[in-house]
Design goal:
Elements: E1 9-11, H1 13-16, H2 26-34, E2 39-42, H3 43-58, H4 64-77, E3 83-86, H5 92-101, H6 109-120, E4 125-127, H7 131-139, E5 143-145
Helix pairs in contact: 3-4, 5-6
Length: 148
């Protein structure tokens, strides 16, 4: 495990999407992220966000032009300071298995993989809008930033 980075904030997909799809918590996410000097987005979160945008296109919630615009905005945003994209660690699957045994709370697979990626990258802060993931993260000693 890498030495903990107590400054960087790991941004989960539930909050990353709120930058591009207007939801009630979107203004608060923008406000919270504006206070950060280092925001880490894993390739997993990027893939999930792209998949969710594609689902909205296929479900008729987005036009093709709007979908393409949002994907460009996502890509462009992740190149800006204070964002950085972290590769998905190869050891994250094993770490997710180990983390699952350390908590009594249920955590969905993708949420566990996010927590494992955060842990593998030596991060200790998580921004999520997912209550179950937040509960598990806190039980593992991770500082959770909730936008609500």
């Amino acid at each position: 495990m890498t030495a903990p980075n107590t400054r960087a904030l790991y941004l989960d997909t539930s909050c990353l999407l709120k930058l591009f799809v207007r939801e009630p918590e979107s203004p608060r996410v923008i406000e919270l992220l504006g206070e950060e000097s280092q925001i880490v987005v894993s390739e997993l979160a990027r893939l999930e966000a792209e998949t969710q945008l594609r689902a909205r296109l296929r479900g008729g919630l987005l036009t093709k032009a709007k979908h393409e615009k949002l994907v460009r905005q996502l890509t462009d945003t992740l190149t800006l300071d204070p964002f950085s994209v972290a590769p998905f660690p190869s050891e994250a699957f094993e770490r997710a298995r180990e983390l699952a045994t350390r908590t009594k709370e249920h955590c969905r697979t993708l949420d566990l993989l996010h927590l494992a990626a955060l842990d593998c990258d030596g991060l200790s802060r998580l921004c999520t809008n997912d209550s179950a993931q937040a509960t598990v993260a806190q039980s593992l000693g991770i500082t959770v930033v909730l936008p609500r």
